[in-house]
Design a protein that fits this description.
By secondary structure, the chain is an alpha/beta fold. Helices cover about 30% and strands about 30% of the residues.
Length: about 240
């Protein structure tokens, strides 16, 4: 029936000298299907901001345990309100890095979308002035190792969502001996450097592959809407078992 209707439409347009071809979109990855495929049972939401990413995991269908980590006080207050409605969603008012203690974080406008431990070199502000640095805050810092030991002492189906504005490698370096428990990662990777000392995608992908992860999907995260130049992408990687 559908093929017949398509043929009829094509014949009608042929009368006007027009050739109609049907566009079949390429399949788009489904994060929830990937979480199911790799049997993810717990998600760590690192760099949770106000909790939007946690709600995203719930909205796509993930019903397991989540732990969100957000260091900035006013954002954490918003996160707490979201977490309080979900018994399987926990939160901590901390940043994650490669050491324990306290550290100063740079606060930005734009609802804190670019808060970072690293100094901005001005790339973001040129494209998005609202992301300029507006202050600093001393925050608590924990290692990935310590939070895995506390919140995921057993198992090997942990998924990390890491959005740390150039600090992603530092986070992973804080738990290399615990990454056997992490089956997958969603991580922001920079094509253009926005922060001093920030590793770029050309460094991060080989590093992640050395850790045993393989890219299963890539999404555009941030780009210049005028020129279409892509500055950052979100990569989804899993430990892909070879048969």
């Amino acid at each position: 029936m559908i093929k017949t209707a398509k043929k009829t439409v094509q014949q009608a347009f042929h009368l006007f000298g027009l050739d109609v071809k049907w566009h079949v979109p390429h399949p788009v990855h489904d994060l929830f299907e990937l979480l199911k495929l790799y049997q993810v049972d717990t998600v760590f939401d690192i760099g949770a901001n106000s909790g939007v990413s946690g709600e995203y995991f719930r909205n796509i269908g993930f019903a397991g345990k989540m732990v969100s980590f957000e260091p900035v006080s006013d954002l954490y207050q918003q996160l707490e309100k979201r977490v309080s409605k979900d018994p399987l969603w926990l939160s901590e008012n901390v940043a994650i890095g490669d050491q324990e203690g306290e550290q100063e974080i740079y606060l930005t406008g734009g609802a804190g979308a670019a808060n970072s431990f690293l100094v901005s070199i001005g790339q973001m502000e040129q494209v998005a002035p609202e992301l300029a640095t507006i202050g600093r805050e001393m925050v608590k810092l924990r290692t990935l190792r310590s939070i895995i030991e506390e919140h995921y002492p057993r198992g090997n189906r942990l998924f990390l969502k890491i959005d740390a504005q150039g600090y992603e490698k530092k986070i992973l370096e804080g738990a290399v001996d615990q990454l056997n428990k992490v089956v997958g990662i969603r991580i922001e990777l920079s094509i253009v450097r926005s922060y001093a000392g920030e590793p770029l995608i050309c460094e991060m992908l080989p590093y992640l592959y050395e850790l045993g992860y393989r890219v299963c999907a890539i999404d555009e995260a941030w780009s210049d809407r005028t020129t279409q130049e892509v500055y950052q992408v979100d990569a989804i990687l899993f430990r892909v078992a070879k048969t």
